[in-house]
Inverse folding.
């Protein structure tokens, strides 16, 4: 009887232990599943934040779905890049878009080969046939930023077409220092009436061979290993970006020889109560035989209409709201922007509008204006000044912007110095 009782007890204990083991396994599976789901959700949101809709083998680029500007009208298409599940050794990327006003297709096709995973070193090859805004200047190392639409793009009308073949090498020198070098050969054709006079010759289109070196240094940012990758955990300031561009004549039939140096620093002071101050300094210098397409326009964002209400449009993120498009071009320039974000007004749990105080300044000049024919513009040899404010997040991400132009470029008609627009600041 005792043996039988002991056997029953042991059997019950074994059953209980087995049940506990199975329960622990189920709990572990559920925990692993939750962790995996959480990781998938985080990766998905990170991709959306960068402007990609991820699938298993291909990430669709949301930037190419719908855009609008004054030259192309509506511009729509598809683009993307292969995912790491397709291959972590190489990638293929590209896009195809169509402009309904100019009735032209634009496209780009390229690929990259990873040379070193630890330093995130890639060699990239790209062929592009597209448009670029005249006077714009981009840093190769800039982080990708995605928003539902680009405010300035709506009113831009001065573009040049370029067919560019490029090879680039991106390399992480250290956690805080990124680098990218590029060699490119381009055929440039302005879409507007423009001629560049150089050494007695008149160029309506031209060839360029350029070499670029871009560096981005974030000395106060902090990084950690997350999911076997180094990720930025503290976005530290100030940040510094510099880029050197050299165009060499007679290299692959290049027509001009010029040098460009671009610099930007961003500093942000966070006061810990949802208020902050952001300071941005941008400067550029172009010397040599530089056509207008590769000079500087100082980020204008005002259209030429008679009244303030007719000029009502969308305010940019870092643009001069009272400066008219194509009003100024420079071969050397500097801009300074001060933005102070006050603590949001907590009217309700969901309605928290925020007041932003803004002042912007620009200074520039040009040596040989007479080389640029067919287009009229001024220089920034006197200090350009504007100040104003924004009230953001009034309704569904929309807000209002007000700016006033004063100082050396104050216009005779008082109304022409005002800019009244709406803002849209939702980004993913």
């Amino acid at each position: 009887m005792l043996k039988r009782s002991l056997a029953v007890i042991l059997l019950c204990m074994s059953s209980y232990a087995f049940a506990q083991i199975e329960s622990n396994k189920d709990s572990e599976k559920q925990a692993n599943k939750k962790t995996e789901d959480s990781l998938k959700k985080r990766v998905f949101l990170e991709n959306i934040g960068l402007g990609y809709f991820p699938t298993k083998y291909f990430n669709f680029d949301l930037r190419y779905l719908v855009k609008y500007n004054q030259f192309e009208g509506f511009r729509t298409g598809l683009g993307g890049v292969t995912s790491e599940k397709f291959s972590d050794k190489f990638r293929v990327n590209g896009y195809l878009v169509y402009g309904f006003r100019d009735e032209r297709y634009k496209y780009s096709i390229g690929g990259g080969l990873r040379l070193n995973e630890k330093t995130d070193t890639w060699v990239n090859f790209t062929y592009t046939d597209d448009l670029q805004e005249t006077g714009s200047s981009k840093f190769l190392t800039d982080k990708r930023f995605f928003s539902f639409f680009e405010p300035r793009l709506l009113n831009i009308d001065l573009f040049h077409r370029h067919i560019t073949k490029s090879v680039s090498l991106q390399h992480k020198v250290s956690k805080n220092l990124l680098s990218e070098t590029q060699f490119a050969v381009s055929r440039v054709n302005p879409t507007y009436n423009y001629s560049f006079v150089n050494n007695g010759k008149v160029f309506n289109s031209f060839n360029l061979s350029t070499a670029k070196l871009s560096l981005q240094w974030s000395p106060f940012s902090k990084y950690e290993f997350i999911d076997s990758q180094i990720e930025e955990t503290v976005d530290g300031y100030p940040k510094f970006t510099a880029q050197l561009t050299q165009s060499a004549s007679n290299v692959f039939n290049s027509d001009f020889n010029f040098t460009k140096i671009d610099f930007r620093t961003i500093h942000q002071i966070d006061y810990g109560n949802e208020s902050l101050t952001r300071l941005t300094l941008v400067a550029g210098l172009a010397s040599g035989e530089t056509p207008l397409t590769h000079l500087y326009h100082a980020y204008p964002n005002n259209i030429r209409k008679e009244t303030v209400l007719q000029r009502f449009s969308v305010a940019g993120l870092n643009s001069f709201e009272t400066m008219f498009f194509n009003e100024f071009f420079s071969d050397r320039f500097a801009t300074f922007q001060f933005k102070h974000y006050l603590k949001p007004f907590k009217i309700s749990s969901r309605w928290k509008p925020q007041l932003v105080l803004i002042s912007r300044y620009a200074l520039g000049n040009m040596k040989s204006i007479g080389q640029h024919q067919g287009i009229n513009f001024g220089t920034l040899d006197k200090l350009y000044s504007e100040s104003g404010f924004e009230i953001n997040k009034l309704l569904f991400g929309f807000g209002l912007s007000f700016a006033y132009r004063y100082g050396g470029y104050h216009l005779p008609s008082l109304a022409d110095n005002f800019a009244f627009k709406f803002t849209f600041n939702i980004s993913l």
